[in-house]
Amino acid sequence: MEHQPRKRFGQNFLRDDAVIDRIQGAIAPKPGEHLIEIGPGEGAITRGLLMAAGTLDVIELDRDLVGPLGERLGALGDLRIHQGDALRIDLASLVPPGTRLRLVGNLPYNISTPLLFRFIEQLDCIHDMHLMLQQEVAERIAADPGSKAYGRLSVMVQTRCSAETLFKIPPEAFRPPPKVTSAFLRLRPHRPPRVHIDDPERHARIVAAAFNQRRKTLRNSLSGLLDEATLSALGIDPRLRAEQLDVASFARLANARPA
Question: pTM of the entire structure?
Answer without folding.
Answer: 0.92
